[in-house]
């Protein structure tokens, strides 16, 4: 009798991992290479460079003892306060300039002169006016975040459907009703993109001001570590600042996707 051939079990496709690990390959390779190079060429007691394992030890220490938490709250508090002030001013100005071509022409040169001004150039003047402290940092962040919100808000308002504005005129809608019923709802997705861009700028400017002049926050912690010749601590602060910036941006992207779906995917 012929024996029946054994049934072959169907080959199951491997399940995809819940997390895509490919973005982590390059950073891990860079860290590994840096570790090897540090062990070969950097003395253990170097005052300028540190091996990744030394940075990891300092990172864990400051994460556990609350140093990162305190410094992060100081930096984010100043960044968010400056963003709120500058964003509201920029939004109000952007809506006004988007609705009034005459006002836009009158202010165009002033905007283009002030917009490219580096925030660090404002530090000496801000020190004279506000002194060291939170107020100075908020003022510089606010000035810097006005412009992206103004420019993008103005463009968003100008892209309002003209036929909707004509209908509003026919219906004799007041300026306030046109603004709240037609202009702002249509421009909100782009305005949110402007605020997300301004939020990233606010964080960068806050850290920069703290490094240069303000004795508080993450930037000041990194500067103190550098002056104390503790490279592992300084690099640990740098890694944490990068993580905070990445996490902050991811939160804003998730909020944007939740509110507006994929409408702004191309803006990223």
Number of strands: 0
Specify the CATH homologous superfamily of the domain at 72-219. MetI-like
**Shape type:** elongated
* CATH fold title of the domain at 72-219: MetI-like fold
The CATH class of the domain at 72-219: Mainly Alpha
Ends: how far apart? Answer: 69 Å
* Low-pLDDT ranges: 264-268
Chain-averaged pLDDT: 85
Radius of gyration: 26 Å
- Class from helix and strand fractions: mainly alpha
Elements, N to C (H/E): HHHHHHHHHH
Biggest sheet statistics: none
The number of helices is 10
Please identify, by name, the CATH architecture of the domain at 72-219.
Orthogonal Bundle
Summarize the amount of helix as a percent range: over 70%
State which percent range the strand residues make up. under 5%
Task: Please explain how this structure is put together.
It is a single chain. The protein is mainly alpha-helical and 268 residues long. Helix content is 74%, strand content 0%. It has helices at 25-41, 52-65, 67-99, 101-114, 123-130, 134-158, 162-170, 175-212, 217-227, 231-260. α6 (134-158) packs antiparallel against α8. The chain is elongated and about 75 Å long. It starts with 24 loop residues before the first helix and ends in an 8-residue tail after the last helix.
């Amino acid at each position: 009798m012929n024996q029946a051939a054994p049934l072959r079990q169907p080959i199951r496709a491997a399940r995809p991992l819940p997390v895509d690990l490919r973005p982590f390959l390059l950073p891990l390779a860079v860290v590994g290479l840096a570790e090897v190079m540090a062990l070969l060429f950097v003395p253990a007691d170097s005052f300028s460079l540190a091996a990744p394992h030394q940075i990891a030890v300092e990172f864990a220490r400051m994460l556990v003892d609350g140093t990162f938490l305190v410094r992060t709250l100081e930096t984010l508090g100043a960044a968010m306060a400056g963003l709120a002030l500058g964003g509201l001013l920029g939004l109000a100005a952007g809506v006004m300039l988007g609705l009034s071509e005459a006002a836009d022409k009158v202010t165009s040169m002033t905007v283009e002169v002030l917009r490219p001004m580096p925030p660090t150039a404002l530090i000496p003047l801000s020190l004279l006016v506000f002194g060291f402290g939170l107020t100075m940092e908020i003022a510089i962040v606010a000035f810097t975040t006005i412009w992206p919100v103004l420019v993008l808000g103005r463009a968003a308002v100008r892209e309002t459907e003209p036929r909707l504005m004509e209908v509003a005129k026919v219906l004799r809608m007041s300026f306030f009703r046109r603004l709240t019923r037609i202009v702002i709802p249509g421009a909100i997705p782009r305005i949110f993109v402007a605020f997300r861009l301004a939020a990233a700028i606010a964080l960068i400017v806050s850290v920069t001001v703290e490094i240069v002049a303000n004795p508080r926050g993450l930037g000041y912690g990194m500067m103190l570590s550098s002056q104390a010749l503790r490279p592992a601590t300084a690099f640990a602060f740098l890694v944490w600042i990068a993580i905070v910036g990445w996490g902050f941006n991811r939160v804003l992207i998730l909020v944007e996707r939740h509110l507006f779906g994929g409408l702004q995917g191309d803006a990223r």
